[in-house]
# Entry
Amino acid sequence: MTQIEDTYYITKIITGDTKAFAVLVDRYKDLVFTLALRMLKNREEAEEVAQDTFIKVFKSINKFKGDSKFSTWIYRITYNSCLDVLKKYKQEYKLDPIDEYTERQLVTFENAFDALADKEQRQTIETCLQKLPEEDGFLLTLYYFEEQSIDEIAKIVGLTTNNVKVKLFRSRKKLAYLLKDSLEPEIIEHYERERK
# Structure
């Protein structure tokens, strides 16, 4: 899935081949839905935002200039659509304080996070991501699961790269806090011994 391929389909759509849009929808629908779900925590709302995102993309595809990747553009539209819904409902999420976690503990949790491979453990991560505040889950999904660069994420969420770094650091702290209660103690102990 390269930018050249996306550009090919975008050109076809602009010149009147509306069927080409189905290719782009198929290519991005799963991630758009996942990102919306991370922020909204509600399947129905996420489905509505995903549909709304593709309607907006279709209506404004001729405005896509190609300054960034098409994926960055569509994720930005998704992000803004989610923010609109959140403003509408003014949802608030509470999370316990996590300031006691050090950088070393975060590295320990991140190493443990990397070691999780089987389906049950992946489900633990998904469950913890769902418990995070909306923007945190969104950022972590882009960074870890979609392997977007800090620069790309900054374009998507409209922040500076330094702000994204800070937000990612804080999001990882929150995830570490949630994972601490979910991970098997021996996994954490193994990585703590390895770090000493």
